[in-house]
Amino acid sequence: MPSEQNNKPKLSRRQFLTAAGGVTFAVAAGAMGFKYFAEPGKNKKTLPDQEITAWVKLNPNGEIIFYNPAAEMGQGSMTALAVIFAEEMDADWDMVRIESAPVEPDTYGLQWSGALGGPMLTVGSRTIRGYFQALRHAGAQARNALLQLAAAHWGVDIGQLSTEPGTVVDAKGKQRISYGDLAALMTDTETSIELREIPESAWKKPEEFRLIGTDVPRRDIPAKVDGTAQFAMDVHLPGMLYGSVLRTPVHGAKPTLKNETDIRKMDGVLEVVMLDHGVGIVADNYEKALKAKRALQVDWSQDAQAQGYDSEAAFAKYQQLARQTTADSRKVSESGNYSGAMRGAQKTYDLEYRNDFLYHAQMEPLNAVVSVTSDKKSAEVWVGTQGMDGSRKAVADALGIEFEQVKFHPCYLGGGFGRRSMSGYVEEAALLAAKVDQPVKLIWTREDDVRYGAFRPISVQRMQAGVDETGELVAWGHYIAGTGGGLLGSAGKCDYYSLPNHRIEVRNIDEGVRTKHWRSVSHGANKFAIETFLDEIAHDLGRDPLNFRLRLMREHPREMKVLKEVAQMTDWGNAAIPEGRARGLSVTDHGGSFAAGVAEISVDEQYKIRVHRFWTAVDAGIVVQPANTKAQIEGGIVMGISSVLQESITFKDGAVQQSNFHDYPLLRMADVPEDIEISLIASEGAPSSIGELSLPLVGGAIANAFLSLTGTPLRHIPFRPEKVKAILNA
Known about the structure:
Blueprint: E1 10-11, H1 13-16, E2 23-25, E3 56-58, E4 64-68, H2 77-89, E5 96-100, H3 105-108, H4 127-154, E6 161-164, E7 167-170, E8 175-178, H5 179-186, E9 193-194, H6 220-226, E10 241-247, E11 255-257, H7 260-264, E12 269-275, E13 278-283, H8 286-295, E14 298-300, H9 311-322, E15 330-335, H10 338-344, E16 347-355, E17 367-372, E18 379-383, H11 388-399, E19 406-410, H12 424-433, E20 440-443, H13 446-451, E21 459-467, E22 473-482, E23 502-508, H14 523-541, H15 545-552, H16 557-570, E24 582-590, E25 593-603, E26 609-619, H17 626-645, E27 651-652, E28 655-656, E29 675-680, H18 697-710, E30 716-717, H19 721-728
Parallel strand pairs: 4-5, 10-20, 16-30, 18-19, 22-23, 26-29
Antiparallel strand pairs: 1-9, 2-3, 3-4, 6-7, 7-8, 10-13, 11-14, 12-13, 15-23, 16-21, 17-18, 17-20, 21-22, 24-25, 25-26, 27-28
Helix pairs in contact: 2-4, 11-12, 14-18, 17-18
């Protein structure tokens, strides 16, 4: 095998080929730090029935199979990643087929710390930006390899060759050969090629793109429309059994089952499985599993850390924590002389903002299918997960076997939003399947998912600021207190605002409740506090919110451009706004992207806030798929409106009080804005975050529109009608 340091590994014909006469392109190492994926058989230790070694396989019929490393949960990344590779390969898009990559993070993991080989984890809007450079490089290598083959076949200099979609062209010799014919040619010759390092300067320039930046139809949509797309829920195996689990109502409590004998006698029940956090049932159909679960009589231990936790009462504790300057704190950012600037300010502000826990509410409840061999030495898994290698490892660890002994089949996901980056549900399925000699499909009900969810953290955010005699911000303090640990502080720092004297801290109390990454993590809560606070200051000073922000962005031209774009879209300050309505402005960043948004709202006689229109301007670098990007931004806005106006999880005595959508309401179609307008600002920077960018705009934009409409601030999301009524009638 060539050394990883070798920039020009030579591949013989035998090394270059895989099964069925196809050519599989490896990815060479070099100055860019991309891992070298070597000879056929590298993966045979772990995936004996797989004969691929890299990203793409070219068949003699011209078909190009791209191996997708990311979860497809409706965000369109499966198509986008293939587009990136196909762009640099100069592939004929009609000949591209997409299959799931093997769950081998050393080969297919994200670009992490500068190199491929990180986790196969679809979170944080990292997918496109995490694979963009590597896939362009790999595509350029594949194209160069085909040019080498054609040059050798024709006996010409490679420099006189070029490519068109799916074809190598020799303009001088007036010759053409398809990629498929080159693949067939490779099976019949002993041609040797070099898989070369292709410098970025030799890649396509943005003006040369023909796939990137165009609206290529998503490949997952037809299968989802005609029903052939496979979710784990669709998997049916011979002899398959069904599993259900009764989980503790208070996280950390342990079960004691009082009626196991009676449960085992119930019709269809084949196994009862004790878990650390609950009791599992395996039955011959799902209805019988649910009936047995309902009949379980369980005593739960009373020593869980979360025992007695009351989320409403906890706000007073978090409020106190946010005001304890001597409390243990984690600094997010600090610069200048914040305390001195506050003391010297002509006027100071000190306000608080709050947010409740939020449930992920993904469309598809959790489920997985696991089959364990009778000797318990290997397993096979079908699951939709955001963390493929993490889930594969979880099954291996649960069964006490090696990672390589778990055969993994990634399935489509009916939404994730961070919830499916956890692997507990897959581990449960494995533990149930290990008790029987048949495959088990574990299905969570919606009630299971709500009551044993992992939530976006609750918090109190104390905001402080000082202004000088000209109204210029001279001091900025932000103290985030709650439960959620490292999840609390995301987006606390605003690099696009010039705040020379600032202090931003997180103060956490571990309450023993389950918290997790939620779409945009805490950006939604933190940007709400930041942007609403800014408008309250501007309102008090009699300043226009747009000009107030532009002044703060004076050293950040990229962000100013985005803000000015949304102002132009809305004709800010000049537009004729319908009677009874008002508009509010908000900005946010996420993963290298920047967005500005404006909401137009009204409040009806029942104190219900209605968002009529929403405008957004976005700079997210190179946009791979414009229509899909806009769909992601629209989805984030709608989800943001739902979370800001309606959604709330509360705890009493350590247990979640909600159970389904009757008491955890989501936005309905009738309440979606009549119009959502999006402007994508042209940029040549590398692609950056899209999926989680727009949601954090919503809270501030709605609150600021409400302030403009009523002169009254909203400081606690969600803004349900009863809360709005109390505020307006106070």
